[in-house]
Amino acid sequence: MSRILVTGAAGFIGSALSTRLLARGDEVLGYDNLNNYYDPTLKQARLARLTAHPKFGFVRAALEDRAAMEKAFADFRPQRVVNLAAQAGVRYSIENPHAYVESNLVGFINVLEACRHGKVEHLVYASSSSVYGANRKLPFSVQDSVDHPVSLYAATKKANELMAHTYSHLYALPTTGLRFFTVYGPWGRPDMALFLFTRKILAGEPIEVFNHGKHTRDFTYIDDIVEGVIRTLDHVAAPDPAFDPRRPNPATSAVPYRVYNIGNHQPVQLADYIAALEECLGRKAEKILLPLQPGDVPDTAADVEELKRDTGYAPATPVAEGIRRFVAWYRDFYGA
Question: Measured by CB atoms within 10 angstroms of the end CB, which terminus of the chain is less buried, N or C?
């Protein structure tokens, strides 16, 4: 049993992770600002499921609020930290870049400093598959260079990895970055494709299908993601004895630093994803076919061999089953 601080605890992944940690006996402090990037009532509903638990506490504050962050660490004294809070969304980063600097850069340095001074045993933080940017070699490997981001969101996530390495080097703070690949499932985010498509199809409204539905995504079910996060949290980053500074591996280091892909390793074309959703809903979608959006990439596919090797991670949920579970939750939650 550990004391674990989870930022973004009212978010999609954070609430699911907190639920699992509580179920295994950990004490959890959730930290979230409940912003209105998407419907706060959904965040409140996720949070309500957690606050009933006697081992869950909650602080409502932003990552960039340094005083609130320092107080949360001082009061709770976490042994381990999972940083999932961030300003999310690739397309929104084009419209509102300053929000990403404040949350994802200023906020993350506050997390790192708090972990350093609080002598935290392990910091696990959310990176993103978007860091692969203009890369076209598939599947994406953590050993690939990721120096060509195509959105500010991706650039901030790459910056987080660099900042984490600096703290691992200077202060021996064990850090592990997880590059998430298109997470979906019950209690998901309303700004993401599955949620948007489901709402519009049930309402009889047309859906916007970018890149004419031809791009592929490594859709990863929430339960598989949470399993991977927990396995990573329990597997504290350590120096790589084989690290060669003359031929550096971007995924490891001579200091306690790791980066992993966390995905399903089974890319699905968007058109097939929509077809599976149509089958679950029992109705066809009216599609508006559009070109690829600025900041988006045509394809993603995760090479998860390192995560499998080091933690035993094994995603097990087929996309059709994951969509079925999401639709069942959506109908129940919204009475649709």
Answer: N
List Cα–Cα distances, 83 to 4, 90, 246, 276, in angstroms: 10, 19, 31, 32
Distance CA 248, CA 281 (A): 49
Catalytic residue among 153, 257, 273, 330: 153
Neighbours of 48 (CB within 10 A): 11
Nearest to 12 by CA among 132, 188, 232, 164: 188
**Structure-token match 């978010």, residue found:** 11
Neighbours of 188 (CB within 10 A): 21
Q: Which amino acid is at 219?
A: F
Pairwise CA distance, residues 100 & 93, whole Å? 7
pTM of the model: 0.95
* Amino acid of residue 213: G
Pairing state between β 183-184 and 220-221: parallel
First to last CA, the chain: 40
The shares of helix, strand and coil residues in the chain, as percent rounded to the nearest 5, are 45, 15, 40
**Cβ contact 18:52 at 8 Å:** no
From the list 123, 293, 112, the residue with the least C-alpha distance to 193 is 293
Q: How far apart are CA 20 and CA 228, in angstroms?
A: 12
Per the annotation, the verdict on 153 as an active-site residue is yes
Half-sphere exposure of residue 47: CA atoms within 13 angstroms, side-chain side: 21
* Tokens representing residue 95 in the block: 């419209």
- Element holding 23 (H helix, E strand): helix 12-23
